[in-house]
Amino acid sequence: MQTAIPYMQFRGGSSKGLFFKATDLPADETSRNKIILAAMEGVGQGDLRQIDGLGGATSLSSKVAIVSLSAKEDADLDYLFLQVVIGKGKISTIQTCGNLLAAVVPFAVECGMIKANSPTTSARINMVNTGGICEVIIETPGGKVNYAGNVKVDGVPGTAAPIICNYLGTEGSTCGSLLPTGNVKDIVDGIEVTCIDNGMPEVIIRASDLGITGYEMPVELDTNEILKNKLERIRIQIGHRMNLGDVKEKTVPKMCIISPPLNGGTINTRTFIPQVCHEAIGVLGAVTTATACVLKGSVMEGIAIVYNSSNLSIEHPTGEFTVCLNISNKNDNIIINQAGVIRTARLLSKGEVFVPENIMDL
């Protein structure tokens, strides 16, 4: 016997995942996670292929969003992000996902949680995992979500309607401060790094200090065991200094390898999340990386090409990601007022996902 749970599946940015109304899931975290793992991985939890569930067997497609109306005065919706850790039978909530966030307002409209306006609908989203608010604006002509448009997001085939995401209050959202170690640069194992958190904790390292060019494709970097072991040693050591504690079993901090831009951008990147090289770059990872580009004294100096903070192009293995920063300075310290990005999203499917009726006993 099986239990049916309503869901929708969206592509948000360059990720995709299952979306649930919070009221359709148990409030108890342990019970909720059992259901989510059953939905994504099936009964044989820990299967790298996720063959018995709806997960896509990669970190970019093993994501879940839980959405509800917000009780906060400055927000309309609450968005809780769950990352299924492939092969571990575990769920991480320590981070958020800016890609799936782009689909939160479309989901809320599609399921009747909020009413659409015309020609656009905006909502303020409370990012439950890390705090902070994101104002999201979508196209809703005639009160219906428009998915068709001319905006191209690198890493996603085709084009779609633009979704404007304005991030507010993401500075230090996970680590407590923009520079969690208190330094613009730190040295770990003899290598200079910049540790920064503007929505996503990152350790930024020059490719040249790691003995690589930084232009290698992910498949090549994923087979470089010497590099991966070096990155993991640095990550584990710096995790405590970033106020993240023991990060051996955590998905943060991300490790961002930088090199000079190749295609007219601001900086070139290769990001490990945390032990696998990302085929692109995450939304808040791009925001954090862009922030480091305008930070005096960071490892970006002499590498990043910055003309103005309102157009920072972060190059990645499958294209680029543009971030618009609204910044100011106070007592020679940088203040991030707002970070804007443009994403797209599309509703892929909706219906009921089935999980074993006795899932709580398994």
Key structural traits:
Diaminopimelate Epimerase, Chain A, domain 1, 6 helices, 35% strand, alpha+beta, 362 residues, 17-stranded mixed sheet
Summarize the structure.
By secondary structure, this protein is α+β, with helices and mostly antiparallel strands. The chain has helices at residues 29-41, 98-101, 104-110, 218-222, 225-241, 283-293, and strands spanning 2-12, 15-21, 63-69, 77-85, 90-92, 120-127, 133-139, 163-168, 186-188, 191-197, 201-206, 254-259, 267-272, 312-316, 319-330, 333-343, 345-356. It has 2 domains: 2-162 and 345-361, Diaminopimelate Epimerase, Chain A, domain 1; 186-340, Diaminopimelate Epimerase, Chain A, domain 1, CATH 3.10.310.10.
Topology diagram in text:
Blueprint: E1 2-12, E2 15-21, H1 29-41, E3 63-69, E4 77-85, E5 90-92, H2 98-101, H3 104-110, E6 120-127, E7 133-139, E8 163-168, E9 186-188, E10 191-197, E11 201-206, H4 218-222, H5 225-241, E12 254-259, E13 267-272, H6 283-293, E14 312-316, E15 319-330, E16 333-343, E17 345-356
Parallel strand pairs: 2-3, 4-6, 11-12, 13-14
Antiparallel strand pairs: 1-2, 1-17, 3-4, 4-5, 6-7, 7-8, 8-16, 9-10, 10-11, 12-13, 14-15, 15-16
